[in-house]
TrEMBL record:
It comes from Larkinella knui. InterPro entries: FIST_C, FIST_domain_N. It holds the Pfam family FIST. One of its GO terms (molecular function) is kinase activity. This is Histidine kinase. The keyword Acyltransferase does not apply.
């Protein structure tokens, strides 16, 4: 694997790094993560197409960019990949509403599944897509266990619209799937939140899709405000500090769910993922040191699946973590870098949702408020 990395910031392109022998004409895949306003005015796709004439080019908007071991804003980080022993195929699906997310996942599986498919990486619209339905379709349709990871595009903390594009200027309502083929590419993944849980576990007694109405027969919003105390006055912004832990059954691993909005009249809360009835939930709160430590745990988990140092690491972390950590946000990227050592190329972005199995050979899940890491290396 040979890599080339460059960044657009402060009105100029700057070179970051390049593997000896890398040839732009031979790059098969280009990943470009950038601030939405920049993507809209840069003519980025045309510039990248001229630079990498035969590559599949994937572009998405972010809530912050990760490179050079730091978190950046108002930039575009571009990573070009020349695989030496691995094939790739890509597909883009258009989606216009949340209810089409399962069908979109089915189409991606149908387009990319093959006997030699070794991994799948997703970049999805972060505003219109139900990530839980998208991942559920892939879990059901793929004929055998395939590691699936990726993330939902971001839009800073504006939550207006997100952009994704494959071999075209990025636009709203797109999902891109990238399939990797062959036996020579090794991939590891890890995902960890680091939030503290508090209060008893309670049952979801009324919900529709991602809208939660009642917990233990009580209005969900009233109960949530009761737990938040003085922080309830700062809703909905304060919701990023207090996500929910959810388990479908007592045997399930808990997932983190972010609150997107609240409805004072219906006393309901809308989440960035499914909230099935009879699921078990607990309230969560931020612990800064544990959030940062979780990044190192995710990085170690991904590394342990490779058994050697990665050549490329893609870090996808949640916009909520960035808003909570504030000036300490760089520390979670630095924690991952310490695990990987100095040689791996780091890229990534802050997202509206993360996609990864919780552990090796597990189902792919949508996560919120996690640091999710995918590492790549060719034999």
């Amino acid at each position: 694997m040979k890599l080339n990395q460059s960044v657009f910031k402060d009105q100029a392109w700057n070179y970051i790094s390049e593997t000896p022998g890398f040839l732009a004409d031979n790059a098969q895949l280009v990943l470009a993560f950038g601030e939405r306003f920049l993507l809209e005015k840069l003519n980025l796709y045309e510039q990248l197409r001229a630079r990498y004439p035969t590559a599949d080019i994937v572009i998405n908007s972010t809530s912050g960019e990760i490179y050079l071991d730091k978190v950046h804003d108002d930039s575009v980080i571009v990573t070009a990949i020349e695989f030496e022993k691995t094939g790739i195929r890509t597909v883009q699906i258009d989606i216009s509403k949340h209810t089409e997310s399962f069908k979109a996942g089915e189409k991606i599986a149908q387009e990319l599944d093959a006997p030699d498919l070794s991994a799948l990486f997703l970049i999805s619209d972060g505003s219109w897509v139900n990530g839980s339905e998208l991942t559920e379709a892939l879990n059901q349709l793929l004929k055998r266990h395939i590691p699936i990871s990726g993330g939902l595009a971001g839009d800073a903390a504006r939550f207006e619209r997100t952009l994704v594009g494959l071999n075209q200027p990025p636009a709203a309502g797109k999902i891109v799937g990238i399939g990797f083929y062959g036996t020579e590419l090794k991939i590891g993944h890890g995902s960890m939140g680091g939030w503290d849980v508090f209060g008893p576990e309670r049952e979801v007694t009324k919900a529709t899709y991602n809208v939660l109405y009642q917990i233990d027969g009580k209005h969900a919003l009233d109960l949530y405000k009761e737990y938040l105390g003085k922080y309830a006055e700062s809703l909905p912004a304060a919701a990023l500090l207090f996500p929910l832990s959810i388990r479908a059954t007592t045997e399930s691993e808990p997932l983190v769910r972010t609150i997107l909005s609240i409805d004072e009249e219906a006393k309901s809360m809308t989440f960035a993922g499914e909230m099935p009835e009879k699921a078990l939930v607990r309230f969560m709160t931020a612990n800064f040191d544990r959030l940062i430590d979780a990044s190192a745990v995710a990085a170690n988990t991904s590394m342990n699946q490779l058994n050697f140092a990665p050549e490329l690491a893609i870090l996808i972390s949640c916009v909520g973590r960035k808003l909570v950590l504030g000036q300490r946000t760089d520390e979670e990227v630095e924690a991952a870098r310490e695990v990987f050592g100095t040689d791996a190329v780091l890229t990534g972005f802050y997202s509206y949702g993360e996609i990864s199995p919780l552990q090796s050979n597990a189902r792919c899940e949508l996560h919120n408020q996690t640091m999710t890491v995918t590492v790549f290396s060719e034999n």
